[in-house]
Amino acid sequence: MDSWTVSSALLLAGVISSAAFSHFDTECYTANGEDYRGLQNQTSLSGGKPCLFWNETFQHPYNTLKYPNGEGGLGKHNYCRNPDGDVQPWCYIADHEDGIYWRYCDIPTCQMPGNLGCFRDSGDPPTLSGTSETSNKLTIQNCISFCRKQRYKLAGMESGYACFCGNEVDLRDHGESPSMECNHVCFGDHTQPCGGDGWVIIFDTRVGACGGNYSSPSEVIYSPDFPDKYGAGRVCYWTIQVPGSSAILFNFTFFDISDQTDMVELLDGYTNQVLARFDWRSPPRELVNITGDFVILYFYSDRTNQAQGFALLYQALRSQDTRVIEDEGNEEDETDDVSSTAGPQLAVWTIYALAALLILTVIAMVAKLLLHITVKSPNIPTVSGSDSCSQSTASSEPWIILYRPSTISLFKKKLKNHHGDLSPLVGN
Ligand SMILES: *[C@@H]1O[C@H](CO)[C@@H](O)[C@H](O)[C@H]1NC(C)=O
Ligand SMILES: *[C@@H]1O[C@H](CO)[C@@H](O)[C@H](O)[C@H]1NC(C)=O
Ligand SMILES: *[C@@H]1O[C@H](CO)[C@@H](O)[C@H](O)[C@H]1NC(C)=O
Ligand SMILES: *[C@@H]1O[C@H](CO)[C@@H](O)[C@H](O)[C@H]1NC(C)=O
Ligand SMILES: *[C@@H]1O[C@H](CO)[C@@H](O)[C@H](O)[C@H]1NC(C)=O
Q1: Percent helix / strand / coil, the chain, rounded to 5
Q2: pLDDT at residue 115 is higher than 60
Q3: Residue 202, SS3?
Q4: pLDDT in tens, 217-260
Q5: For residue 245, which ligand has an atom nearest its CA?
Q6: Which ligand is nearest to the CA of 287?
Q7: Would you say the CB of residue 286 lies under 6 angstroms from ligand 3?
Q8: Distance, CA 392 to ligand 3 centroid (Å)?
Q9: How much is the pTM?
C-alpha cells in the first residue's frame, strides 16, 4: 500500500470486491468460456440474433452429427458454445452477412473469476499506468507473470500484443457491451482473448500464481500459469486459513491433470497430514469437505505432459462468528520454486559466471583485434565498419507492423470457414 493514494486504493478495493462477489454468479471458469454450459440462445441479450440449433447445422463444421456425444457441449439445443477453442462462446446464425454465418455471444454471466473486465483505454493517460511491454508471443499469463514479478496487482492486455501493469483502475471506464470489444486473440495463444484496440482486458495478477496465502471466506484458485498450461516441474503451495471457520468446502470446477505423477493435494494446515490427493486417475468428483480452518493446497508437476490444470472454488463454513476478515497478504513470488538454501549458492555461481563472462569477453576482444589486423581487406572503409555492424543488428522491423489487428480478424474468419476440422475436439 506504500505508494497508493487512499482514493486509488478504494477504487481497487471496489474492483476486487465486485469481482469476489461475482464468483458465484459466473458460469465460466476458463478464460474463453469453453466450459460455458448455460442457456443463452441468442448472440446478445439486447437485440441479438437467434442461434441455430446444433442438431440442424449440418452444412457447417460443428453439429451433433459430427459430435454426437456432447463434445464441446453441443447437443439438441441452440445455446452458445465454444467447441473449437475460440476466444469466446459463439453460435451459428441464420442470415449470412459477408459470408459470416456465426457470431460471438455476449454472455454477461460468462467471465472467469480474476478477469476484472474489459475497460476503455484512451491511452492518455493509459488505463493501467505502470510498466508495459509488447510481445508477439503474448498470452494472458505471460502478461500476468510480467506484472506479478514487479509486484503489480493488475495486468491488462490490449490489441493482442500489448501488456500493461498497474494497481488501480477506474470502474467508470467500463464500456457498454465490453466483452465484445476485448476478444482479439492473444498473439501467443489464439484461444485466449487479449483485449482490443482501445480496450484493455484486466486480470488480477493472482490468477495462475504458483502459491499464495488466502484468508477470505471464499475465493477461486487457479493452477500455476493458468490459463496457459501449467509449466514443467512446478511445486506450489497455497495456504487457506480462515479464522473462525468450522470447515472449508472445495469445489473443483475444472480439473485437467495429464499424468500420474502430476497431482493436487489438500493437507491439514496444522499437522501437514495429506487429507486428499487428486491426479489423472482419481480426479475430484464432488465437493471436498475439510474440517477445520486451515488447509494447505499443494500442486506438483513433473517434467512431462503438461495440461490445463485446475480451477477451484473454496468456501469456508463459518461457525457463529461472522466478523469480516481482511483479505491480505496474497502476495505471490515466482522464487517460491527455488528453495531458500539456493539463495547464497546462486550468488556464488553468479559471481563465477560473471567472472567467466569477463574473461571470455577479453579473449574475444583480443581475438577480434588480431583477426581484424590480419584479414582486414583494403576496400572496406575502417570508419563505417562498426557502424554498419550495429545497423544490421537493429534492422529487424518492429513486428507490430506485421501484425495488424485486421489480419487477426481475417485469420479468425478463415479459421471457422476452412479449418473447422482443426478443432480441439477432433483430438479427443
Ligand atoms: C431461447 O430460450 C428460451 C427459453 O430458454 C425460449 O423461450 C426462446 O424461444 C429461445 N429462443 C430461441 C431463438 O430459440
Ligand atoms: C433439434 O432439436 C430440437 C430440440 O430438441 C428439436 O425441436 C428439433 O426438431 C431438432 N431438429 C432436428 C433436425 O432433429
Ligand atoms: C461447484 O461450482 C459450480 C460453479 O459455481 C456449481 O455450478 C456447482 O454446482 C458446484 N458444485 C457443487 C457440488 O456444489
Ligand atoms: C462439512 O463438514 C462440516 C463439519 O464436519 C459439516 O458441518 C458440514 O455440514 C459439511 N458440509 C457439507 C456440505 O458436507
Ligand atoms: C505466505 O505466508 C508465509 C508465512 O506467513 C510466508 O512465509 C510466505 O512467503 C507467504 N507466501 C506468499 C506467496 O506470500
Answers
A1: 25, 25, 50
A2: yes
A3: strand
A4: 999 999 999 999 999 999 999 999 999 999 999 999 989 998 88
A5: 4
A6: 3
A7: yes
A8: 57
A9: 0.73
